[in-house]
Structure to design on (124 residues):
């Protein structure tokens, strides 16, 4: 096979790179969607912000979610009356969260969800 045009390898490489980018972006999106499917609904939203001090009214699980990315920052099982606290009180913590989440700290929106133990649905 003879190649008459020297740009053919360049076109092939560009197509492969573009395919890789599309596949990588599709993978990230599907991961975020599947994460969001397993989170409790909006009816379980109990708080949010950079400083959270919340007490569980009954046994259950809290989910701290960064809303812009859909990433789960923390989950914890709580007993009735047990407190959940979250605070970003230093630039170092903000930088660590920025690196973990992959977005500017100024754009983050932390949301706290609580799903009572008696309402938890069995794993699928």
């Amino acid at each position: 096979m003879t190649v008459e045009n020297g740009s053919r390898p360049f076109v092939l490489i560009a197509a492969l790179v573009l395919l890789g980018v599309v596949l990588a972006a599709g993978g990230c999106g599907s991961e975020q969607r599947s994460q969001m499917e397993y989170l409790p609904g909006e009816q379980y939203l109990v708080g949010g912000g950079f400083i959270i001090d919340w007490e569980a009214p009954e046994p259950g699980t809290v989910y701290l979610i960064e809303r812009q990315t859909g990433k789960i920052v923390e989950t914890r099982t709580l007993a009735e009356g047990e407190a959940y606290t979250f605070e970003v009180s230093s630039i170092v913590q903000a930088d660590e969260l920025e690196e973990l989440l992959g977005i500017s700290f100024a754009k983050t929106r932390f949301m706290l969800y609580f799903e009572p133990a008696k309402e938890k649905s069995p794993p699928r």
User: Anything to note?
Assistant: The radius of gyration is 21 Å. Helices lie at 8-37, 91-101. The beta strands are 45-48, 51-55, 60-66, 71-78, 83-87, 110-116.
